[in-house]
Amino acid sequence: MVRPELLPKHDVMGAWTRALEAGSIAAALALVAINAARFAGEPRLLAWWLPLAVVAGVLAADFASGIVHWTADTWGRESLPVLGVRFLRPFRIHHVNPDDLCERDFIDCNGDVALLVCPLLLGSWLVPLESELLGATSVFTAVFGAATLPTNQVHQWAHLPQPPRFVAWLQRRGVLLSTAAHQRHHTAPFTASYCITTGWCNRALDRLGFFRAAERTISRVTGMVPRDDERDYVVRRAR
Ligand SMILES: [Zn+2]
Ligand SMILES: [Zn+2]
Question: Which end of the chain has fewer CB atoms at under 10 Å, N or C?
Answer without folding.
Answer: N
